[in-house]
Amino acid sequence: MDHFHTQNGVLHCEDVALPTIADAVGTPVYVYSANTFRRHAQVFREGLKDCGRVHLAYAIKANPNLAVLRVLADEGYGADVVSAGEMARALAAGIPAMDIVFSGVGKTRDELTAALAAGIGQFNLELEEEGEVLADIAAAQGLVAPAVLRVNPDVDAGTHAKISTGRAENKFGIAIDQALAMFDRLAGRPGLNLRGVAIHIGSQLADLAPLEAAYSRIGRLVADLRAAGHMIDRVDLGGGLGVPYRPDDVMPSPADYGAMVARVTKGWDVELMFEPGRVIAGNAGVLLTKVIWVKPGVTSPYVIVDAAMNDLARVAMYDAYHDFVAVEPTGARMMANIAGPVCETGDTFAMGRDIDVVASGDLGVFRTAGAYGATMASTYNSRALVPEVMVDGGRYAIVADRILPETILAAERVPEWLDT
Ligand SMILES: *Cc1c(COP(=O)(O)O)cnc(C)c1O
């Protein structure tokens, strides 16, 4: 459930009419509903009520806006970060270092050092050498790094190949059959408190079965590790729960997910860590855009909007579907293609889709754009970096400025040898 709804014929985010935001901030612009973030955070937590000790680390790559992080910090969420930049955001939002998990297959030595200095709560190790280096850095400073091994359980998550992470050939994690021996070698090192295992098999999962298969494998690994004498008190179950993008999509609910987790992890006696991203952020945001032209096409007209693939990359990257609705629908429908101004055929949001009738100057939104939206934006075609607005009840604020092409240009230099 989200807080985007039509009131007196006009689409609102909570109590703010979207044309108000378009007038004040311009388009394209991402619009977030603070109360939808809060609700999703609460529903996800509630779903895990029978899962014992639980730690929630919002995967901030889904939407790292500082205001979003502050809302989730207030809901008691920690953060899953994948770079020093994300760690800095989490800390700036007031998330305690102890509640931060550092994931990622390419953490640099500088990043490991910075995260140790910050005192983050957990390093998710991706390879043996990373564990050795982290242990050495920590030991040299008289510190102990809390860590878990990320295991690749070799399951097919049944999602888009580009967001599938848990198959043997993917770059992520340690092959599950090597985990025990690696644990033996790393666990005794000074500087490292190796206390558990982690998995994350992919994103936008529409089915709980692959997750259940992966969690069952992890359960057997935990038993093997304990039998080998290791202390295991944490298992990180990752993120990945899908969200409905199409009006008729049916996704497992957080309650369904939590029931499965409770059943599979019964008796594990560990703190369970979760790293939800999309399920918290996806339906908490829309991309608000204005129609520039309606251009006749061979089959259907092209609705050319002022948002493009540089603002919302998911369609070009993952063939993703984003619902498009008019902000002030008349009730009439049309068949149309929807595309942005960027000079790439891939800059097409929909082909041959039944949509609300829109004309030049009308406002529309791409729905379910709160996750992996603004965070992937670029300035391709020397377009502005898209701004972000947060609505909270009847209030709204710009929570990320539009970065203008002039600002980007001002950071570029022509070397003096060309400047004659
Ligand atoms: C991306 C990612 C997540 C979040 O995935 P969602 O599908 O957005 O829930 C969690 N953990 C790790 C390690 C990730 O890379």
Summarize the entry for a quick read.
The chain is 28% helix and 25% strand. The protein has helices at residues 18-25, 34-47, 66-74, 84-92, 109-118, 128-140, 179-187, 209-227, 254-264, 278-281, 314-318, 405-410; strands at 4-7, 10-13, 16-17, 29-33, 54-59, 78-81, 100-102, 122-125, 145-152, 174-175, 192-198, 234-236, 271-274, 285-295, 302-305, 324-326, 333-339, 348-356, 363-366, 388-392, 395-400.
If you had to describe this structure to a student in words, what would you say it looks like?
With 420 residues, the chain is α/β, with parallel strands linked by helices. The chain folds into two domains: 4-32 and 282-410, Lyase, Ornithine Decarboxylase, Chain A, domain 1 (Beta Barrel), CATH 2.40.37.10; 33-278, TIM Barrel (Alpha-Beta Barrel), CATH 3.20.20.10. It contains twelve helices and 21 strands. It has helices spanning 18-25, 34-47, 66-74, 84-92, 109-118, 128-140, 179-187, 209-227, 254-264, 278-281, 314-318, 405-410; strands at residues 4-7, 10-13, 16-17, 29-33, 54-59, 78-81, 100-102, 122-125, 145-152, 174-175, 192-198, 234-236, 271-274, 285-295, 302-305, 324-326, 333-339, 348-356, 363-366, 388-392, 395-400. Strands 4, 14, 15, 16, 17, 18, 19, 20 and 21 form a nine-stranded mixed β-sheet that branches. α4 (84-92) links the parallel β6 and β7 (100-102). α2 runs parallel beside α9 (254-264) and α5 packs across α6 (128-140). The N and C termini lie far apart (61 Å). Pyridoxal-5'-phosphate binds at residues 59, 61-62, 80, 103, 200, 203, 238-241, 275-279.
